[in-house]
Write a structure and sequence with these properties.
about 240 residues, globular
């Protein structure tokens, strides 16, 4: 699922998430590919897939290959200099095995597996990823997820928006990235060393209203797929940012 966001806490001139045209639109456009393993016989739980996708984005951001002179660093810079796009596709069986053979990072949750790849040009996907389907990522939670741990980061979903699992995975990844950008180096290191604990949960209607005016990172969708432009989708509630 394609996702391109806006973000309220970044100054207007600098935000890579704004839906209005900016200089970022003139730069070559890149996308961060994420592939969810969805086997017919054993699909992952929806919430676990969302949380695993968010941790996969963080794993890519924190990887030493993404920084300095690392092998993915230039692609990461190109991606972050343009629109911050993420696309979630699904794979199973031989498709998944081919995806795993490409350079990237696989993150495993309780039932979910998500592989994240270094950014690629918007129209230059590797063929083994380009052939994967974007649709078909509708997932369910067989059991109601437990309450979120308030001592760990929580990515709160807008309770009034209906999103496919693929769309919500991309949104959760954006929210995790916004929290990462806001943290100090010390807080980033602590989150990374702990294995990026986080929860993804729908907020209550009244809680959502409070969250959107709390000053925490807020993701707004550009409206390319599924939902209206400017829709507020996720608030990133990290304890260090409260």
């Amino acid at each position: 699922m394609n996702s391109d966001q806006t973000h309220d806490r970044t100054p207007a001139a600098a935000s890579p998430f704004r839906s209005e045209p900016t200089a970022r639109d003139e730069a070559p456009q890149f996308v961060l590919p994420l592939v969810a393993r969805i086997e017919k016989s054993a699909p992952p739980a929806r919430t676990d897939a969302l949380e695993t996708a968010a941790r996969a984005v963080l794993a890519m951001l924190a990887d030493e290959r993404s920084a300095g002179e690392g092998e993915w660093a230039q692609a990461m810079r190109d991606w972050q200099d343009a629109r911050i796009r993420k696309v979630v596709r699904r794979a199973r069986g031989a498709e998944w095995r081919r995806a795993e053979a490409l350079p990237g990072i696989t993150v495993t949750g309780k039932s979910a597996e998500v592989r994240v790849f270094p950014p690629v040009p918007l129209d230059g996907w590797p063929k083994d990823l380009a052939r994967l389907q974007v649709s078909g990522t509708d997932l369910d939670d067989p059991e109601t997820p437990p309450p979120a741990d308030p001592t760990a980061p929580v990515l709160w979903l807008n309770p009034d928006l209906g999103m496919s699992a693929g769309k919500a995975m991309a949104q959760a990844g954006h929210a995790a990235q916004l929290a990462w950008w806001e943290l100090t180096d010390e807080d980033r290191a602590a989150w990374r060393d702990a294995g990026f604990p986080l929860s993804v949960r729908p907020a209550t209607p009244s809680g959502w209203t409070d969250l959107t005016i709390s000053g925490l990172p807020l993701v707004r969708d550009a409206g390319f797929t599924e939902i209206a432009p400017g829709s507020s989708t996720v608030v990133a509630d990290h304890p260090a940012l409260r």
